[in-house]
Amino acid sequence: MVTIREVAKESGFSSTTVSIVLNNAPLARYIPDTTKKRIQRAAQKLGYRPNLFARSLRNRRSHTVGVMVFDMTDPYCTPILRGIETSLYQASFLPILTDVHNERSRFERYLEMLLDRRVEALIVVANWLFVEIDVLGDLEKSNIPPAMIGRELQAGAISSVIVDNEFGSQLAIEHLFSLGHRGIAFIRGPKHITDTAPRWKGIRNFAKANGLEINSDLVLDLPESSDPLSSFEAGYKLTEELLRKKRIFTALMAFDDMTAFGAIRALSKAGIRVPEQCSVIGFDDISHSTLLTPALTTVRQPMPEMGKMAVSIVSEGISAVQEKRKITTSHRKLTPQLVVRDSTSHPL
Fold this sequence. Notes:
Layout: H1 4-11, H2 15-22, H3 33-46, H4 52-59, E1 64-69, H5 77-90, E2 94-99, H6 104-116, E3 121-125, E4 146-149, E5 159-163, H7 165-179, E6 184-188, H8 196-210, E7 219-221, H9 230-244, E8 251-254, H10 257-269, E9 279-281, E10 298-300, H11 303-322, E11 331-334, E12 337-339
Parallel strand pairs: 1-2, 1-3, 3-4, 4-5, 5-11, 6-7, 6-8, 8-9
Antiparallel strand pairs: 10-12
Helix pairs in contact: 1-2, 1-3, 5-11, 7-8, 9-10
């Protein structure tokens, strides 16, 4: 690496003057512009680059943010990560991305490594989460503001950004109900997934308020799994089970889009046309939803906005640390949106 001393020799000025100019230190305002230009030309000629690591040690700033994803293969993560990356780039922060594979030991090891690298904040994308992450509570002692996307911890000490799952499921069931569907099959999420309970609550509340009977024979649950992509195969098998037992339904509401894809595959294999003979609706609006034939009606989570909001929360936390203020906890709940496409229609 080209050093300050070499730039000083090339420019003809002292190392102290060169350091002040290249680091844009407060004293730089007293140095003539002609001197600054000579130093900058010399630095450019030699290919000098500042040692950001050394600078971070001096000012105790790393300008990095840890981003932990529980399973990077989940298509739910991609637009969230784009929102995070875009916002961090605009704020001149470098993301350090880790995939913990839904393993507690890997989560704890990566967390330790991120803290060792002095990240200034931590964002956790808690998709398809089975790992208990109570260890995050220790971050408060380290003055590292955390934010979690997709889950709100019971203790409430960690800032969170979630979608209104209960309202989202109400949008989905209301859509099917308004089309005239009464025999509706449901594939719920795994019991340990935090989104499962509020989505089912929204369905039950709508059914109760509108006199819609939920047939328990038409309610199935996704199996427990640490693989978010497993919901495609599970949706396929559970729909096959409904058909094999000759359950009568004109619509199917899936826990998420991957489950809906599997359900449509099973229906098509059985010769049942979607939506003419059975409507299907999902949840998330991942990118593949528009590529399916028919294109999937679903409930859209504002995923890029969730990533951007998490960055906004931790940025405020970083400012609080720099200004020696208390880090405040923030909980944001975003409103989902019904996206009507080709997989739903009036029953025959």
